[in-house]
Structure prediction request, 309 residues.
Amino acid sequence: MKKVLLAAHDAGGAEILSAWYREHVSRCDCYCCLEGPALSIFKRDHEKTLLVPRSFVDSLVVDDFILTGSSLESDLERFLIRSARIGHLRCATFLDHWDLYEARFDMSEGLMGMPTEIWVGDRHAYELATRKFSIPVKLRENPYFKYLSNCYDGLNVPIDNDILYICEPVSVRHEATLGWEEALMYDDERVILRNFFDDLTTSGFRGGVVLRLHPREYSHKYDEVLASASSSGFRVNISCDDSLLFDVKQSRVVVGVESMALVVAHVLGKRTFSYRTGRQWPLTLPFPEIVQVASTTEIVNAVNDSHAS
Prediction:
């Protein structure tokens, strides 16, 4: 049986590869080289996976296959892509986002830094990737979105929260792409969240907010922001649920910056908002249904509309 090596570090790629693994594990000999947030995602989704170190790639032969996610900081996928080129192995990278494509590969290495093909899950990503790269780009059904939609339809959870706020370390992204000096010109994730709470307070909002932390964020990261909102008049809780589906299903609207979770919420039919304050940068999510706002007026109106319907 053909061996397949799955490799991921960051959460976005790991979610896609975990869903792909679920669909294909019975049809191929799957091995997983996982680091960072990807480890906890596969542990959450699967009782048992065959975890292997990076050096496992040296045991693969020409008929085997490598499927990777992509990362801005980790070199895991870059290492295995280069190893695949050296070993003349077929290697595909499933891109999970819509920006910084070149930064996810060792472009300075030419074809040695690129997989043999790129997979994308939607037309927006396909058009972008075909403009960026000369290697084959293939449009595949996103197995993560497919899995979520199937599970979501059968999830019997009442709506008991108004706003789900998706946290994400936008400062890490800015530093990686702009450098730390220019990154300081933009509001970071703590400032954006504090402004969000201040806006809600000014609006007179009295409902509930659930914060869902990014897999890379530690549990006490926003303690100071939460403390400042303690007398705001609305309820704030941090999600303790592993399932994004549960948090989305129980909420009336979903708010974030530009996390993949916003796209998931949109795909699942929720009113979804990208909230950013301070100096603006181009939103990387190419979905006009994800409404871009710099105040909470439209968000609160959407909550009120949901209560009225």
Observations:
- Residues 12 and 260 are 7 Å apart (CA to CA).
